[in-house]
Amino acid sequence: MKIGVVGSGYVGxxxxxxxxxxxxxxxxxxxxxxxxxxxxxxxxxIHEQFIPELLERHRGKRLDFTGDLDACVRHSRLIFIAVGTxxxxxxxxxxxxxxxxxxxxxxxxxxxxxVVEKSTVPVYTNGWIRRIMLSNGASPELFDVASNPExxxxxxxxxxxxxxxxxxxxxxxDRSAGLLQEAYKPLTDGSYSRRSDAIPGPVTPPFxxxxxxTSAQSAELIKHASNAFLAMKISFINAVASLCEAVGADVEQxxxxxxxxxxxxxxxxxxxxxxxxxxxxxxxxxxxxVVRENGCxxxxxxxxxxxxxxxxxxxxxxxxxxxxxxxGKKLAVLxxxxxxxxxxxxxxxxIAVVRELLREGCQITAYDPAAMERAAEAFPAxxxxxxxDPYEAMAGADACLVLTEWEDFAALDLARxxxxxxxxxxxxxxxxxxPAKMEAAGLNYYSIGRADVAGGPREVPLxxxxxxxxxxxATGNGRQPxxxxxxx
Length: 488
Ligand code: UDX
Hints:
Layout: E1 2-6, H1 10-21, E2 25-29, H2 33-40, H3 51-58, E3 63-66, H4 69-75, E4 78-81, H5 96-108, E5 113-117, H6 125-135, E6 143-147, H7 157-162, E7 167-171, H8 174-183, H9 185-188, H10 191-194, E8 211-214, H11 216-247, H12 251-259, H13 280-293, H14 299-323, E9 330-334, H15 349-359, E10 363-367, H16 372-378, E11 385-386, H17 390-394, E12 399-402, H18 407-410, H19 414-420, E13 425-428, H20 435-440, E14 444-446, E15 453-454, H21 464-475
Parallel strand pairs: 1-2, 1-4, 2-3, 4-5, 5-6, 7-8, 9-10, 9-12, 10-11, 12-13, 13-14
Antiparallel strand pairs: 6-7, 14-15
Helix pairs in contact: 1-3, 4-5, 5-6, 11-13, 11-14, 14-15
Bound molecules: uridine-5'-diphosphate-xylopyranose.
């Protein structure tokens, strides 16, 4: 099938490359010439497993890149809109890119097309795109608008596309639904998973994906409700973690007991410094706006956002408690990406925590396995130092903070960690370590929803100024502090 994908961001690039992998003839459109040139050369603009392989397999054969939207429309039967829908100031999704693409598509329609929303959009968008296309001259019999939301996670996006939990096709006409069903046939009939060159997935072949046909509105709502539900699970366990700290329970034990109920499940119950990324924060805000604009009450969503913000503040208090004070402290930060397996730092809780620590006067040396380049762009004036590996970041630091759940960090050599740090303090915002092992290694260990562990000396480290003052007092150098009982 001839497929066009508008927008070569995360969703567009993954969808385009995967449709080519399924045997379709794909044209990917973008307005960014530099990105197009990079893609044509086989350079992958994102850190995503299997995308380089898929580009290598299909680039210049079943996967082409262009800046010409009209040509893409003429080429394609299905046109997926995968442009950005960033949040506006009031939280509502900014649909101006979707609008301009819809206008351009309308001007180029010459034969029956299905325009498919792939970007996450509010529940009314389908009808709105239809109206834009009609008012820009597209004949009603020459197109349908459908919704086919993407549920991919960064880091496992290709496997999520090729081995999905479900494919949602929100289409109000049988003709458009039929074409979308055909596009996904290699996934729904299991033939893709049986191919000898198939990208490996989390399940044993044959794998047949479930396709759910809904109305366009229901499909739009499924996407927002799914992300809100997952964010709710994270905020729920983070709130429970705070209670665990207050009553002396262990959140990891609570998670095991709670998540073993098959109705609840273990996944998305990992406590931490809150959710981030390009989807959850934005989609929660947009979903709240949709609820408000339609006169409904859904205060639970407000609480999910509030707990998430509170979680970062609580983490900073924990760091302050571990260190006594923050000003002048030298800190090693492990992890800047919003989660493991990606170089993406958009809405990263780690970056938010680092910014707050800088405001408090800390000196930061950071390391991330993938996000160093993006971090350098986020701190262009060199506000933080970047180290080539975790042990370098820790050299002489007053404490080590773990902010992203990279597996590599869990495998650190604890003896070396203790050796590199000036003070043996680790504050873990992702519960990557076993407290007993940290204690045995002589480290003072603070994590989320679990008791603090004192493996090393309990005194809090002093700032450089305080240490200098103490030295001066001990050696009789400089001005001696005056006792309030002495007469000056
Ligand atoms: C998410 C959805 O999972 C995906 O279905 C949707 O299409 C896009 O948004 P993504 O943003 O890639 O995907 O990341 P995800 O793995 O969901 O993690 C989101 C955030 O939640 C990260 O900051 C992560 O660290 C955090 N998280 C996740 C937790 O804090 N605890 C958990 O248990 C799970």
